[in-house]
Amino acid sequence: MQIEYVRLSPDDTEALVAFLMADPWPFHAGVQDPEAIRKRVADGVYDDADNRTFWQIADGERAGLVRLTDLSDATPMFDLRILPRFRGRGLGKDAVRWLTAYLFDAFPQIQRVEGQTRGDNVTMRAVFRACGYVKEAHYREAWPAPDGSAHDSIAYAILRRDWVSGTVTPLVWDDEPVRR
């Protein structure tokens, strides 16, 4: 499969609306209203000094969307969406590897990249681990769902030094001081 990444352009507004409305995106928070999406595009939410969005093109078709946020911070974050008919083909891993390299290559001030997913999104959690990201946080019942329930939110990150060396620095979870 031929995969490339193409930066979102102002002419892509209607394609973006169609893409975001094509799936309920159960593991994503966000806007599901066409007018609100158009306003967010006009306001620079998808592309400005602090945000960049890219189409993931697979064999000539728009298969996914990669949104990079907080680019002026030392720790940017990202949102990744892949249309259902393209899932299960390795596009998630390709996108995470691509965006990690893009961020570390294009922004020398970045020292780590972070992403979050719902605790029950086991596929994305496996993608994070396969791409060298380490689980750093587990926020209990912190991800509100449209039905009023709350899911756990899990944060993963990769350090620049781990990316450069191809290693994974384990996190020490049991570091609480002993109470006496």
Automatic annotation (TrEMBL):
Pfam families: Acetyltransf_3. The keyword ATP-binding does not apply. It comes from the Bacteria. Its EC number is 2.3.-.-. Residues 3-161 form the N-acetyltransferase domain. PROSITE patterns: GNAT. Keywords: Acyltransferase, Transferase. GO terms for molecular function: acyltransferase activity. The keyword Acyltransferase applies. This is GNAT family N-acetyltransferase. It comes from Nonomuraea salmonea.
